[in-house]
Amino acid sequence: MQEFDPHVLEEKPIPPPEEFSKKARIGSLDEYHKMYAAAQADPESFWGEQAKLLHWFEAPKKVLDWKPPHAKWFVGGKLNVSYNCVDRHLEKNANKPALMWEAEDGSTIQYTFAELHERVCQFANVLLTLGVKPGDCIAIYMPMIPELAIAMLASARVGAVHSVIFGGFSATAIADRVADCKAKILITADGGFRRGKIVPLKETADAAMKNCPTIEKCIVVRRTKEEVAWQEGRDLWWHELEEKASKENIAAPFDSEHPLYILYTSGTTGKPKGVLHTSAGYLLQCTWSTQLVFDLQEDDIYWCTADIGWVTGHSYVVYGPLSNGASVVMYEGAPDFPQKDRFWEIVDRYKVTIFYSSATAVRAFMAWGTEWINAHKLTSLRLLGTVGEPINPAAWKWYFEAIGKNRCPIVDTWWQTETGSILISPLPGATPTKPGSATLPLPGVIAKVVNMKGEPVGPGETGYLTIQKPWPSMLRTIYGDDERYAREYWTRIPGVYFAGDAAQCDKDGYIWVLGRVDDVIKVAGHRLSSMEIESVLVSHPAVAEAAVVARPDEIKGEAIVCFVALRVGHEPSKELRKELMDYVANTIGSIARPSDVRFTSLLPKTRSGKIMRRLLRELATKGAVTGDTTTLEDMAVIERLLKAQADDEE
Ligand code: ATP
Ligand code: MG
Questions:
Q1: Using CA atoms, how far apart are residues 99 and 111, in angstroms rounded to an integer?
Q2: How far apart are CA 39 and CA 339, in angstroms?
Q3: Which residues pair with 599 in a beta bridge?
Q4: Is the CB of 390 under 6 A from ligand 1?
Q5: How far apart are CA 133 and CA 122, in angstroms?
Q6: How far apart are CA 486 and CA 468, in angstroms?
Q7: Span 209-218, average pLDDT
Q8: CB neighbour class for 297 (10 Å; exposed up to 12, middle 13-18, buried from 19)
């Protein structure tokens, strides 16, 4: 089968800036290769050595117990996740800022490690007083406020299992998740602020709790001071409980494999899965990858813009950076409030050095235009990161120039809720980057692009991304559905972890993640990824974002349908439609000529910002949407697309 080179925009690799490499933890590709080889030769010694990054009450007796598809890491070890993230920094860094929180209205609160410790201890005592036992599940439905991180750390401290439910979810989504994880306590707030408006979290939580028989207590943070409905006996104010609680709490040791949290995936591909992570392996790989991928140094000011409701927020707002004793910026609100330069204003004010955001956010910044950026200095930045979706090379380059001023390396980090931590990414002082590629697997990670039989495919051929060996932060199961865990991840290609993403590996061993396996398009016997066509579209000056799907076609097998959102200052027209079709055909080849280009003001996305191509595929194929839309951010987007389609047909 003939394949196309998707790296239409590929040029020479960009070496890490010399100044950066000189001071970096891993300063050359050679050093990376050595570390990689050592880990590959003896993974257990390698991870056993890395485990010293954590504080242990009892050292593990065995690194790995692997009975496929079930892994136990650091067997026999005892630790406390919260102790690792807070207490152990008190000796040297009690007065170092731990959380630097910015409210949407611009007010700020800073917690040093000593202050964070005090609040985590108090809330841990609250949980104990309420009778929380190790293994009990606590659902957390909160805005981006410090109490969210405190609730997670306190839950971990007493051995409870938290399940954070993104603050934008509906009552039904909450009730579904609570029923699945059987939470006894729900922690929420009277409300949150988003674009200056109040999000009535307690009201939504109340509606959900009508269908949550397992919930015994609901703890409510006072954030907006709005009146909220109250159920005596069930509802309790956070601040009243905290006031009464002692500031001292000794962190108890828990087993390495003690469950830490359940988190539901974003639902891009279907019904969300309750991914279960446990303590030591998860924390270790988060701690270790934060150091390496972000080249974390003692004086860094680190900002990951992800909502804590997603795995990125778990691993790289809370656990990874705090376990390293880093100073973490946390922002409550929207990136365009009060104006579209809010992020850059925050970067300058806090002197942020490491900025980690999503590919979808980068495309939004690009669409908003550089005038929002030019008013800010951004001189404190030294490293940029991206996650969540493949980043189109045009967006990568824009990020590099407009935000990083050609000075900051970009780490394009590939990972999943299931992987727990970053598995494929450049090391910023070592790895030459290629815009659009997550580059090379981290040491200890054996990633291969294979066919359905598990055989590696050649350079430039599309295959399935797999991880060949267990890794410490891997999911342990899908909560309550171990059979689905085995089926979904470990049996499609026997013996290896199947990530569900299509990818290519180039001649230098660089991995190019092309998107979901389901998003690969077959036109007249050729396999194209939606990502490569989208990348071409996004490189056109009129286009802000694009989503490409296939619709069955009697002659070609599948026909290409593009949904395109335009940049500010461009209007839909027949001429532009034709121009975009020609542009794709001229750049990739006539085989890739779209059959249809539809203009839309917005694309349907999950609440974590990922494009939901499966809904667009349904729309393009059946003219209707019937699949699971519970994680869709805005149903109106689909309604508008349906209406536009009906208007077109008239
Ligand atoms: P669901 O599994 O419910 O459909 P989801 O896969 O969107 O949800 P996450 O676990 O948050 O939920 O996302 C992981 C996916 O995001 C990866 O499988 C991959 O498709 C995509 N992804 C993440 N980072 C990158 C990256 N740097 N490059 C390309 N794709 C990425
Ligand atoms: Mg997924």
A1: 5
A2: 47
A3: 564
A4: yes
A5: 16
A6: 15
A7: 97
A8: middle
pLDDT at 649: 63
Q: Label residues 21-59 b or e (16+ Cβ within 10 Å = b).
A: beebbbbebebbeebbeebeeebeebbbebbeebebeee
Point out the ligand 1 atom lying closest to the alpha carbon of residue 266: 8
Which pair of tokens denotes residue 55?
A: 């504080």
Relative to the CA of 275, which ligand 1 atom is closest?
10
Q: What is the pLDDT of residue 2?
A: 34
Token pair listed for 254: 């828990």
Q: How far is the CA of 113 from the centre of ligand 1 (A)?
A: 32
pTM: 0.94
Question: Measured from the CA of 412, which atom of ligand 1 is nearest?
Answer: 27
Mean pLDDT of 521-542: 88
CB 307 less than 6 A from any atom of ligand 1: no
Pairing of strands 383-387, 410-412: parallel
How many whole angstroms from 390 Cα to the centroid of ligand 2?
13
Q: Output the CA angle 36-42-43, nearest 5 degrees.
A: 70
| pLDDT over 50 (residue 359) | yes
Q: Which residues does residue 218 pair with via DSSP β-bridges, in sequence order?
A: 186, 235
Hey, is 566 helix, strand or coil?
Answer: strand
CATH 3.30.300.30 fits 524-649, yes or no: yes
Structure tokens, 389: 């979706």
CB 237 within 8 A of CB 218: no
Q: DSSP string covering 496-537, please?
A: SEEEEEEEEE-TTS-EEEEEEGGGEEEETTEEEEHHHHHHHH
Q: Is 90:67 a contact under the CB 8 Å cutoff? A: no
The pair of structure tokens assigned to 217 is: 């207590």
Find out whether the beta carbon of 267 lies less than 6 Å from any atom of ligand 1.
Answer: yes
Q: What is the 3-state secondary structure (H, E, C) of 188-238?
A: EECCEEECCEEECHHHHHHHHHCCCCCCCEEEEECCCCCCCCCCCCCEEEH
